[in-house]
Amino acid sequence: MRARSLIPRFAVPVLLVLLAACSDTRIDRIETLPVDELYAEAKQSLEASNYERAARYYKRLVARFPFGRFTEQAELELGFAQYKAGDAEEALSTVNRFIRQYPTHPHIDYAFYLRGLVNFNREYGILERYVQTDATRRDLANARQAFQDFGELIQRFPSSRYAVDSRQRMIHLRNGLAQAELNVAAYYLRRRAYIGAQTRAKFLIETYPQTPQTADALAIMAESYRQLGQDRLADDALAVLRLNFPEHPYLGGGWPAKRSLWWQLVPFVGERRAG
User: How confident is the model over 101-112, as pLDDT tens digits?
Assistant: First the structure.
């Protein structure tokens, strides 16, 4: 009985020593590898989708070898690893540093593209959930920054292999930002805050022209002006809506029995006009 009770007491310290030895070996390895092998380890981890390990090796490479071709590529791939690991702030810091330090790098266009991707994915979930949240309380700064990032890439490197995808993402962002503005305008309209409604609808039309949300914005402007007693402005907005979107539900003589998108957006308007 006494001998068996001694085993756990001695096994625990031995196990701790072994674990410490393994840890020291790993640390020694990352600190002693030459630059090419250190880069190879990081690259292998990146390709295996082990992004945290890749980031750790890239960081040590940059710290131990602050100059050279491996360092430049490691810094760029570090930003990607951090982005894939979900560490947006670190990724942005790394990418911005790369852009400052290596403005003539052969893959500098990818750095701008990656910066846009980081901000795009930070905001994507919010844009997708715009209907489920209070439209007046969201901060869409990251979406606007992503739009600016992709725009800068296209302006600086119009022939970049990433330009086409950047344009598509800009269209998505533009429509999402327009929808966010439309939600704010509709929010104010439902609460009969007509000045706020027409102001946001006008901002949408001026800032995001030719988006799918333009028609509803014109309808909100017309209704808001009408409620404010500004009939001339209401008629002007209505004329533009009728000219460009003649099938819009707001223009109908009566509201369809089936609830339209417009009816759902501003339900009290439909009820008043149908009455």
Answer: 999 999 999 999
